[in-house]
Design brief:
This protein has 202 residues and is an alpha+beta fold. 55% of the residues lie in helices and 17% in strands. The chain contains six helices and five strands, in the order αβαβααβααββ. It has helices at residues 3-53, 61-77, 87-103, 116-124, 147-156, 158-164; strands at residues 57-59, 84-85, 132-141, 171-179, 191-201. Strands 1, 2, 3, 4 and 5 form a five-stranded mixed beta sheet that branches. The longest helix is centred in the N-terminal third of the chain and has 51 residues, at 3-53.
């Protein structure tokens, strides 16, 4: 074999080696790009799924404060003491309004059939009191009414009026939610759900 031929063969082998290396690098690059593309798609799908899970139900915190003030204002008009908002009853009322919105029903009981008294006591009955009493008013409206409108509706109902204007209570909590697409009996319409829980313990 001549030196020139040997050089040509070595050159050919080097060229084939370089081509194989280039092909390998290109394949690796394509796999990496594909993996990144798939990762982006998966990320987009995950974000979309998370967005789809976002609930159209909103807790109306500002409205709750306005309603509490309106309830105490009407109690004052009737010579009754103002009630104190307490976190436990706020959580009880919020939970019930959310449950009614999510499950599309309107009742004092919980979805599992538990009474409102059981729910209220679970949130505010701690400390083993020797005496515990609770009451509850609820309301729904499409799409919504003002806080004074809620109070006016309760006053117009003898049963709700009796609960609202009882001198028995010492503390209360209100929970108000708005659902953009009401489930169940609300037939996909925008609906506002209100729960007011009252209690006394000693």
């Amino acid at each position: 074999m001549t030196e020139a031929r040997a050089l040509r063969e070595r050159g050919a082998r080097h060229s084939r080696g370089r081509r194989r290396l280039a092909i390998t690098l290109l394949a690796t690059l394509l796999i990496t790009v594909l993996a990144l593309a798939q990762g982006n798609v998966a990320g987009s799908q995950t974000k979309s799924a998370k967005s789809a899970k976002k609930s159209p139900i909103t807790v109306m915190t500002g409205y709750e404060n306005q309603l509490a003030a309106a309830m105490n204002a009407v109690r004052k008009q009737y010579g009754l003491r103002a009630l104190k908002l307490v976190p436990g009853l706020m959580r009880s009322a919020d939970k019930h309004s959310l449950q009614m919105a999510c499950n599309g029903y309107f009742a004092h009981s919980s979805p599992n059939g538990a009474s409102f008294f059981t729910r209220v006591r679970s949130f505010y009955g701690g400390g083993n009191p020797s005496y515990f009493s609770a009451g509850e008013n609820i309301l729904w409206a499409q799409p919504r009414v003002t806080p004074r409108g809620v109070v006016a509706r309760w006053l117009a109902s003898p049963e709700h009026r009796r609960v609202l204007l009882s001198s028995h209570w010492r503390v209360f909590g209100v929970g108000v939610v708005s659902s953009a697409h009401g489930a169940g009996i609300f037939a996909g319409q925008t609906v506002m759900l209100v729960t007011a829980d009252f209690a006394v313990k000693r």
